[in-house]
Amino acid sequence: MKIAPVVLAGGKPGLFEKLTGPLPKTYIEVGGKRLYQYVADPLLAIFGRVYIVSPHPERGPYIYVEERGQGIEQAIAAAETHLGAETHILLAYGDVYVDPSAFRALVEGTISTGADGAILIVPKKATKGYGAVETKAGGLLARIGGESQWIFGGVALLPRDIIKTILQATFYETLNEAAKTKKIATIPWSGVWHDVNYPEDILQLLEYIAPKHTYIASNTKISPTAIIEGPVIVEEGAEIDHYAVVKGPAYIGKKTFVGSHTLIRNYAYIEEDAVVGSAAEISHSLIGRKATIGRASFISYSIVGEEAVLEPNVVTMAVLREGRERLEPVEVRGRTYYKLGALIPRGARIPAGTTLKPATGWQ
């Protein structure tokens, strides 16, 4: 079995347009990487190469394939024309974060069952757009559709001959037709799996990709009075000023500036070239590339888009009175809350002293 890994990173930005502009949602940067790279990098490590289907090729260690037309079927067909002698394609959605061991489980499951291919299936969640999976004897795929407690997990290992017919029907219809004549195994996966379908899904993602250890690049400038309490990553060229506290898990990107007496804590991500003024506090939030957080601002459970500017003393409120679909509850000292701060679009400017109510800007 010769496998070509393919990551589908194209599509329209949809609800993510406030954050990515014309680029697909898979291009949002979190922790110094685009979203699709969290799938691409493990596949690159396993197979030594990976194909990225996208309308916006970039520099990197990947093989980019230009996305043609619209829809997942067109993207898969575009990738297939670039392959060589590979017998199988390992398809992965670029907007799904999954523990890298799932890829090995998929390949090993296919081989151990003697199947022609396999799909990853995950427990049904509040996720739209993923088909329920019905199985038959031997754990083989019967069809996608109908009722089931398992859904397609956005990762599949399929023979090339199936892929060659992808333009004749939808992706699910192609799988259903193949299941009639081929052995397509279903590989249950109960490990980490997270679909980034809506902007608020990024907040949960911050926890899954959080640093597990502390790394401080050699050319950073950190005041001797600053406190770094891991796990924290501080990238090249970052500057952390006097008496600032960074309490992990947290990410401080390249060439960022963290002002004096500022507190960065609990799943805060400060992306490249961003500036956080003095005496500010950032918690469980994503601060986009080149964004500016003004002095004494408080940002919690929020996303600040690239190059957005928050003038001094901007406050985001985050505690919702009621739960909201797709949000995981937060337990604080025995009490349960649902938290959602503000979504501030790329390039926006928020005046000094503004207080943003919970869930501002997510509509």
TrEMBL record:
Domain Mannose-1-phosphate guanyltransferase C-terminal: 228-315
Keywords, in A-Z order: Acyltransferase, Multifunctional enzyme, Nucleotidyltransferase, Transferase
Catalysed reactions listed for this entry: N-acetyl-alpha-D-glucosamine 1-phosphate + UTP + H(+) = UDP-N-acetyl-alpha-D-glucosamine + diphosphate; alpha-D-glucosamine 1-phosphate + acetyl-CoA = N-acetyl-alpha-D-glucosamine 1-phosphate + CoA + H(+)
Domain MobA-like NTP transferase: residue ranges: 6-125
Keyword Transferase: yes
GO molecular function, one term: glucosamine-1-phosphate N-acetyltransferase activity
InterPro entries for this protein: GlmU-like, GMPPB_C, Hexapep_transf_CS, MobA-like_NTP_Trfase, Nucleotide-diphossugar_trans, Trimer_LpxA-like_sf
Name by which UniProt lists this protein: Nucleotidyl transferase
Pfam families: GMPPB_C (PF25087), NTP_transf_3 (PF12804)
Highest taxon above the source species: Archaea
PANTHER family in alphabetical order: N-ACETYLMURAMATE ALPHA-1-PHOSPHATE URIDYLYLTRANSFERASE, NUCLEOTIDYL TRANSFERASE
